[in-house]
């Protein structure tokens, strides 16, 4: 079941890059995003007051504000920077490469912020993932860098990457769990407000008449939002920060395959090697998680007396003398 969810997440998340390319030729980024979220928020709001009213019971104002902040970071901030970067001329491959650094950032911070320490084997998988993404996108990035794109434009995707990382940790540190239907409704409503304000303020609220625009909107709503975004949080809650972010390594090569089939984009040996490295990264991290399951991924607890036990002092029995970002310099098993 987890494997099927992971595969569906990778495909649906990758579809967002394809949808962005479908709509890029017909409208500005804020126009696409406004009309992506306005009807979506309306539908989800209707569902909230009819079919899922029970899920909203007991929801506090503080929880709503927290989910609104998560939505502003993971949807509004992330998507706006990705779409804007492509609009500025940064290629989708380069954007995917920058976005692909997210797992390393999340993995490095997972230990001190969430107590989800990353084992040495998992770090190996993360490194393989970076190599795979780089193989797929380095040629495209080099070609884009020699064009007319302003140098500062390459900083825009980094802002989106950090925005999604921040949302991931904000959700991970939440004291209560919000129902997925409730969270998605709040996130989409927040994004609808943000993008409507931006589009109206810049005079880009009116949608174009081209059929391709509405095809892109339908694609983005069904596949990228309901599929990719919804599955992101589901896989996150079932598997943890490290694994869900490791799956991000597959986005660039999968998008490359999809682009080759749909837009006749080039697909060569370098892309195939990157896809293989991404698959290897996911496999290594999954096995690393299995090994870690035999040793709890949290720091060893001290007895009530405040002194470490003999087994902990001798380096045996705790199983965590060594695992990950929060235990630098110690030996990992």
Residues in helix, %: over 70%
Low-confidence stretches: 291-333
Oligomer: single chain
Order of helices and strands: HHHHHHHHHHHHH
Classification by helices and strands: mainly alpha
Proportion of strand residues: under 5%
In this structure, how is the largest beta sheet organized? none
Radius of gyration: 21 Å
Q: In whole angstroms, how far apart are the ends?
A: 28 Å
- The total count of strands amounts to 0
Number of helices: 13
Q: Name the overall outline.
A: globular
Descriptors for this entry?
disordered C terminus, 13 helices, single chain, 333 residues, mainly alpha
Tell me about this structure:
By secondary structure, this protein is mainly alpha-helical. It has 13 helices and no strands. The longest helix is centred in the last third of the chain and has 29 residues, at 211-239. The radius of gyration is 21 Å and the shape is globular.
């Amino acid at each position: 079941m987890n494997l099927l969810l992971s595969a569906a997440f990778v495909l649906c998340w990758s579809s967002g890059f394809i949808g962005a390319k479908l709509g890029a030729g017909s409208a500005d980024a804020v126009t696409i995003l406004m009309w992506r979220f306005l009807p979506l928020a309306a539908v989800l709001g209707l569902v909230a007051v009819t079919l899922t009213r029970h899920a909203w019971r007991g929801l506090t104002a503080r929880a709503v504000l927290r989910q609104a902040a998560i939505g502003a970071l993971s949807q509004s901030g992330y998507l706006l920077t990705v779409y804007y970067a492509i609009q500025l001329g940064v290629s989708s491959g380069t954007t995917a490469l920058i976005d692909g650094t997210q797992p390393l950032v999340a993995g490095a911070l997972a230990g001190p912020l969430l107590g989800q320490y990353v084992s040495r084997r998992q770090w190996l998988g993360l490194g393989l993932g970076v190599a795979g993404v780089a193989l797929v996108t380095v040629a495209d990035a080099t070609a884009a860098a020699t064009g007319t794109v302003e140098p500062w434009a390459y900083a825009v995707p980094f802002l989106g990457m950090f925005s999604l990382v921040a949302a991931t940790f904000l959700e991970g540190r939440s004291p209560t769990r919000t129902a997925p239907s409730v969270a998605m409704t709040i996130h989409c409503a927040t994004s609808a407000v943000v993008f409507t304000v931006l589009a109206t303020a810049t005079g880009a609220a009116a949608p174009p008449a081209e059929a391709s625009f509405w095809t892109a909107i339908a694609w983005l709503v069904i596949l990228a939002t309901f599929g990719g975004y919804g599955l992101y949080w589901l896989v996150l809650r079932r598997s943890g920060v490290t694994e869900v972010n490791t799956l991000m390594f597959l986005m660039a090569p999968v998008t490359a395959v999809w682009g080759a089939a749909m837009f006749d984009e080039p697909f060569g040996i370098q892309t195939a090697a990157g896809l293989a490295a991404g698959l290897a990264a996911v496999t290594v991290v999954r096995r690393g998680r299995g090994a870690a399951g035999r040793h709890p991924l949290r720091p060893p607890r001290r007895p009530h007396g405040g002194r470490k036990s003999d087994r902990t002092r001798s380096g045996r029995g705790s199983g965590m003398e060594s695992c990950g970002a929060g235990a630098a310099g110690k030996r990992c098993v």
